[in-house]
Amino acid sequence: MLTLGSEGASYTPNRGDEIRVPANDIAVVDTTGCGDAFSAGFSAGLVEGRDVVGAMKLGVASGSMVAAGLGSDAGIVDRASVDAFMVSTPTRV
């Protein structure tokens, strides 16, 4: 698993093909804490029973929300705000 900043995230399973999830299309303010937010979102997705791609999408959204604000916990208020962000914010092509 690799986070790729404005390119999203990449995962390559053993003996498998690379899976990429694009980043959300946001104006970046501060990237402090984005990796931690991605890890938290990805882990939460797995605990919830999402597949790897679904967990990656949750991780990318979490990191993107943090990048759009100032400081390591900016943007994320609660889980409902992450879900709303995922629905309302397009990804980069």
Structure description:
This protein has helices spanning 34-47, 52-67, 79-88; strands spanning 2-3, 9-11, 19-21. By secondary structure, the chain is mostly helical. The chain has a 3-stranded antiparallel beta sheet with strand order 1-2-3, covered by helices on one side. A hairpin with a 5-residue loop joins strand 1 and strand 2. The longest helix is centred in the middle third of the chain and has 16 residues, at 52-67.
Mass-distribution shape: globular
Helix content: 40-55%
The separation of the N and C termini measures 20 Å
Count of domains: 1
- Our count of helices gives 3
Structural class: mainly alpha
Instruction: Give the strand order of the largest sheet, numbering strands 1, 2, ... along the chain.
Output: 1-2-3
Radius of gyration: 12 Å
Query: How much strand?
Result: 5-15%
CATH topology: UDP-N-acetylmuramoyl-L-alanine:D-glutamate ligase
For the residues shown, what is the average pLDDT?
93
Strands, count: 3
CATH class: Alpha Beta
The sequence of SSEs as H and E is EEEHHH
CATH superfamily: Ribokinase
- Give the low-confidence spans: none
Question: Layout of helices and strands, plus pairs?
Answer:
Layout: E1 2-3, E2 9-11, E3 19-21, H1 34-47, H2 52-67, H3 79-88
Antiparallel strand pairs: 1-2, 2-3
